[in-house]
Specification:
Length: about 200
């Protein structure tokens, strides 16, 4: 039977929002994040990264660098609290009008948020029930993705979240819940939803 998942954006949700991360050591966890992911692990949730990462399309760095950043993220989560992301999905693509310049990644794709490609692929690969899943992000596009995929959407106030709420970044959104940070989002998830 398909199970639900918690999909997590990366920058501003799991790690500090510092713009495009050119040096691995600049990827630093937001305090309390590892413990929050571990709580989801312990509660039986499938935890999945779902993140737009257009650095390769913009020619800021290679796709291998993105993989290295995700390896570091997994290492930090494990070292801090024994936490695990069960799967990692990201979109390196960006259309030319939006700034994509590297041919292999400069195009429109169903994987780029708020399109549902990453979540649909994860659901297919891991037998997930999107209607019982949650998307946690700090941008309106994360909440739009949740709506488009039929998931619950939680907006965290870390990263760009506060700016989304005040209307100074992206556009207005209607999340199912607004959380101070990932720990508060996980508290809501564990209180209101069941992983099985």
């Amino acid at each position: 039977m398909p199970r639900p998942a918690v999909f997590l954006d990366r920058d501003g949700v799991l790690n500090q929002e510092v713009g495009y991360i050119h040096r691995l050591e600049d990827l630093q966890l937001i305090p309390g994040v590892a413990q929050a992911v571990r709580r989801l692990n312990d509660a039986g949730w499938f935890c999945c990264l779902a993140s737009n990462q257009s650095g390769p399309a913009r020619d800021y760095y290679s796709i291998d660098h993105v993989h290295a950043l995700h390896h570091r993220l997994q290492e930090l989560l494990a070292a801090s609290a024994g936490a695990v992301l069960d799967a990692v999905y990201f979109c390196p693509d960006l259309s030319r009008p939006e700034g994509g310049v590297v041919a292999d990644y400069a195009g429109w794709t169903t994987w780029r948020k708020p399109n549902t490609g990453m979540l649909v692929a994860a659901a297919w690969d891991h037998d997930l029930d999107l209607s019982r899943s949650v998307m946690v992000g700090d941008k309106a596009t994360d909440i739009d993705l949740a709506r488009n995929a039929g998931c619950y959407g939680i907006l965290v106030q870390t990263g760009f979240g506060d700016r989304v709420l005040e209307g100074s970044y992206q556009h207005a959104s209607q999340p199912d819940y607004i959380a101070e940070d990932l720990a508060a989002a996980v508290e809501w998830i564990c209180t209101h939803l069941a992983p099985r």
